[in-house]
Amino acid sequence: VGNLLQNGSFEVSSGTGQGLLTSWWLEVKTGGAASISKDTTEKIDGSASAKIIVTQTNDWWKVQLYQHLLNLTSGKTYKLEFWAKSSVNSSIPVVFQKAAAPNTVYLNQTVSLNSVWQKYTVLYTPAVIEADTLLAFNLGTQTGTVWLDGVSVTEVSLNTTKPGDLDNDGDVDIFDYNQLLTEFGKTQSGLISDID
């Protein structure tokens, strides 16, 4: 199964204003002020990224970049992956929530951003069937500029473990290598203390 999101690399910009980037919407609530643009200079996946400039905010949910119409199935595991960076060190809550009232939040994962592109991975297994789930990047934690790129939501099978997939996310990647190094270091220090 491929990416459940549309325009995850922000290549297409057929709208205007808050709906500039096709399939995405920049929600700015009272107390917030922000703008969005397609940035072809700062990008890491494809030829463009989403650039959001937050100039005023008083709460984390006052500025949201979101996409909805995700049809997620109870009991299946989904992997959200995205690249992000910020002009200032910041933390942004990333949520899966019901698109319609009462806007129930199913998952709220906060990630830390800095000025270097970083890839983030979040696993989510819905407890309920929801035909209109919304994925939102909450950018109202502070003022500054945030770039997002390469956003994908894919279904993964955690029942079949690949050799080397130490974090059980369905991929053998740098995160598995880092975990191997971390675990190896722990084992070595344990052996040394046993010898002493």
Q: How would you characterize this protein structure?
A:
The protein has 196 residues and is mostly beta strands. It is 11% helix and 44% strand. It has one helix spanning 174-195; strands spanning 25-28, 33-39, 49-56, 63-72, 77-86, 90-98, 105-113, 118-124, 130-138, 144-156. It has a five-stranded antiparallel β-sheet with strand order 1-4-9-6-7, with no helix packed on it. It has a five-stranded antiparallel β-sheet with strand order 2-3-10-5-8, with no helix packed on it.
Short description:
The chain is mainly beta. It contains one helix and ten strands, in the order ββββββββββα.
Keywords summarizing the entry:
196 residues, mainly beta, 5-stranded antiparallel beta sheet, 11% helix, globular, disordered C terminus
Write the layout of secondary structure elements.
Layout: E1 25-28, E2 33-39, E3 49-56, E4 63-72, E5 77-86, E6 90-98, E7 105-113, E8 118-124, E9 130-138, E10 144-156, H1 174-195
Antiparallel strand pairs: 1-4, 2-3, 3-10, 4-9, 5-8, 5-10, 6-7, 6-9
Radius of gyration: 19 Å
Class of secondary structure makeup:
mainly beta
Distance, first to last CA: 52 Å
Helix content estimate: 10-25%
Overall geometry = globular
Q: Name the average pLDDT.
A: 87
**Major beta sheet summary:** 5 strands, antiparallel
Largest sheet, order of strands side by side? 1-4-9-6-7
Q: Count of helical segments?
A: 1
Beta-strand percentage? 35-45%
The counted number of beta strands is: 10
The assembly state of the depicted protein chains is single chain
Uncertain spans: 186-196
User: How do the SSEs run, as a string of H and E?
Assistant: EEEEEEEEEEH
